[in-house]
Amino acid sequence: MKPDMATTRGSRGDATRSMELLWGIGPTPTRGPKQGLSVERIVDAAVALADDEGIDAVTMRRIADALGVGAMSLYTYVPGKAELIDLMLDRAYGEVLAAITSEGDWRAALESRARADWAVYERHPWVVRAAGPRPILGPNELAVNEATLRAVDGIGLSGPEMAAVVTLVAGYVSGVARGIAEATAEGETHAPEGTWWTERSAVLDRVFDAERFPVSSRLAAEGVFDGDESAADYLANEIRVTFEFGLERVLDGVAALVAARAAGDGPPAPAPPPDGAPRRQP
Amino acid sequence: MKPDMATTRGSRGDATRSMELLWGIGPTPTRGPKQGLSVERIVDAAVALADDEGIDAVTMRRIADALGVGAMSLYTYVPGKAELIDLMLDRAYGEVLAAITSEGDWRAALESRARADWAVYERHPWVVRAAGPRPILGPNELAVNEATLRAVDGIGLSGPEMAAVVTLVAGYVSGVARGIAEATAEGETHAPEGTWWTERSAVLDRVFDAERFPVSSRLAAEGVFDGDESAADYLANEIRVTFEFGLERVLDGVAALVAARAAGDGPPAPAPPPDGAPRRQP
DNA sequence: CACCGTACCGTACGCTGTACCGAGTTGCAA
DNA sequence: TTGCAACTCGGTACAGCGTACGGTACGGTG
Lengths: 282, 282
Hints:
The structure is a homodimer. By secondary structure, chain A is mainly α. Chain A has 13 helices and no strands. In chain A, helix 5 packs across helix 6 and helix 5 packs parallel to helix 8. The radius of gyration of chain A is 23 Å and the shape is flat. Chains A and B meet through helix 2, helix 8, helix 9, helix 10 and helix 11 of A and helix 2, helix 8, helix 9, helix 10 and helix 11 of B. Chain A binds a DNA duplex through helix 4.
């Protein structure tokens, strides 16, 4: 799983190579046999596999099989699996980038970003689980970020506030998107939606005490938690409604801030950076 | 990795066993040798391991080593690794449950829930990555849910709205918490924070175009994205500020809804469930 | 032409989760 | 008391993972 991490991941060549791959500026060698594949095609295959069978099905061997090559051949194009996943994620950001629009006011633009994220999570449920804590720093990710920042530029917010609003919206969507995999189901979890619940409800019924969980059981009686087991799209609709509802609240909250700043309430004094900290790009 | 999933995961005994484990109602056998371990101690060891070295270090063999037993002995207590992780997660919910308070109005209670979640994500960064899309249905998870629902009960929201507000707050926190691992760092990603950036910034500088990313580069020049590489707690503070900022917005958004409902704007007509759908508990 | 950097990939290693089975231990029934 | 069934423990084994290593075939450059 992580063999000799010290040399593999630690050798500072890999990070550079990874960035070059993302930005498509790798040095293309002239000598030797023609390359039969391309990074593009490898990412294609990996994404298709992840869409069809979930992220767990994405193994180097299966990708190679799909491309009709040996597993080790992939390593001539990509330093390792982690870098390949980064490429997959930046490709997903590419779909976001293609979908967002900057028309309308800041609210419309933020909505557009949120819905574009959501659409990608729906099309590619694996993205939620594949995404690590760190940014990819790929061209598409940065472009999406730029576009979102532009949406909230010039409406009276401070720089840190702008960045925080972007994190707020993107964080909200990714948080709620966790539930998407349940709705689309089956791709990731191999048991169909129905059995999962019925298996558990037997024990749950024995243990769920209406006195211990009064509000929960009242809402359950109202049917709030009901879902049609066999019709996955009903569930998908339900979670979509929840998403839209929450998005409205989030944007209302931002609107309140924008209104306050417009009314002349100055932004809080920005905390000075501690001292000569190395510069970071976004 | 997933050997014979059909028999192992599909045999309907496992889901039942898993629920019994969570709720502590397993049938305790009388015959045979005394048990040298307990589910409790196994979860203890697993959580300790995850806290120290990240979720990837949590393997059956390492847990067993820490407990001084053979790897296979764990399987007398727990059906498999997936169920063990569920137990770890419900334990984390237990810490949330212990931290939340129901004092004050709905807003204070929701804040309390959000901060309790956040504190757990800080103490146990592995939770973000270990949590799957489905609910655990353990006692602590349900109790936390109940407490949060109670916070928004009786303030004029419909049942679905109450549920959506809970999802909104919890989803927001988990979404932003994704960035925590970067702040606490090093537990999960073995490279220290500094090198990760410096390695990449070399390529990024070559590729980052101020004309293509005008707003990003302006904010970068302002130092918005700067961080002290060596002092991890500065970064942690920065993300904490972002978290608090977003939480404020989210709650402002909920407040707007509560005010609207109080002003007499009726909730939207609840969509009727399609037809005789099996009942779900929360 | 020879050379050598490169693409491809068979083999192998260390790791994973866990099935299988034997050996030893205990409580209850006969 | 004896014997058996139920149980715990754990060694061994297996399929699958990421990927290091080294061999072979190829093709542009000296």
